[in-house]
Amino acid sequence: MTKDVTVAELEADLAHHLKDAGDGVTIRVLDGGKLIAQIVSPQDDRELFRLPDPSLGPLGEWKPPSLGLDWDPVPDLIAERDRYR
């Protein structure tokens, strides 16, 4: 569920709105009809910032599936960049 509040409404009853956010309500803070902030519950926060799939192994060993390279392209990319500077 989402609830829109103005900055003035948020200031007037912050504790109530934070309780609502803790209960899973997304609070959208509006200023002059424009969205300026969102308050989400910690459960929703996990949806915003997804962690890598642990089945892919440690992050240091992960390679983008679309590349599948067995070599490090960074030195070559840096050399290519520097060639045209």
Strand share of the residues?
15-25%
- The CATH topology: YefM-like fold
Report the total helices.
4
Known CATH architecture: 3-Layer(aba) Sandwich
> What's the gyration radius in Å?
22 Å
> Major sheet, described briefly?
3 strands, mixed
- What are the low-pLDDT stretches, counting only 5+ consecutive residues below 50? none
Roughly what percent helix?
25-40%
What's this, in brief?
It is built from four helices and three strands, in the order βααββαα.
Main features:
85 residues; elongated; YefM-like fold; alpha+beta
Task: Walk me through the structure.
By secondary structure, the protein is an alpha+beta fold. The protein has a single domain (2-83), classed as YefM-like domain (YefM-like fold, 3-Layer(aba) Sandwich). The chain is built from four helices and three strands, in the order βααββαα. It has a three-stranded mixed beta sheet with strand order 1-2-3. Strand 2 (26-31) and strand 3 form a beta hairpin. The chain is elongated. The model has no long low-confidence stretch (mean pLDDT 79).
